[in-house]
Design brief:
Layout (H helix, E strand, L loop, with lengths): L29 H16 L10 E7 L2 E12 L3 H20 L2 E14 L12
């Protein structure tokens, strides 16, 4: 039996290890970071009123840091400050873990409050 010539029989070159600083960089698109932030806000809020729009986010990145603005709608009555703080904490945690970027700022904008339906109350204006 004769050895096979060609690519399989060619001499192998030794693998070279490129130092981490010279390998290049991974760039994550702003829209991906915004989607991660919006999903984290949804996770932090839990169930929303039926007519509420899901949270959405806008981001501004600079090197390895990202500033995030989350827009959301909440049911009312609720502790608005506590809900916004929970959203901030969770967005910082999830974006940091999943995207690997520092999050120095998360601004939360409550765009609309949805009153809880009152059961058994008359609809319309009282005269």
């Amino acid at each position: 039996m004769t050895p096979v010539s060609g690519a399989a029989g060619a001499a192998r070159r030794p693998l070279t290890v490129v130092p981490p600083g010279e390998r290049g960089a991974t760039r994550i698109a702003d829209r991906v970071v915004a989607k991660v932030a919006a999903q984290a806000a949804r996770e932090a809020l839990g169930p929303l009123p039926e007519e509420a729009a899901p949270p959405h986010a806008t981001v501004v990145t600079h090197h390895d840091a990202v500033r995030i603005r989350v827009h959301l709608e909440l049911g009312y009555p609720t502790d608005i400050g506590a809900r916004c703080a929970a959203v901030r904490r969770h967005v910082v945690e999830r974006v940091g873990a999943l995207v690997g970027m520092e999050v120095p700022e998360v601004a939360v904008e409550v765009e609309r409050l949805h009153p809880a339906p009152v059961h058994g109350a008359a609809h319309g204006r009282a005269r």
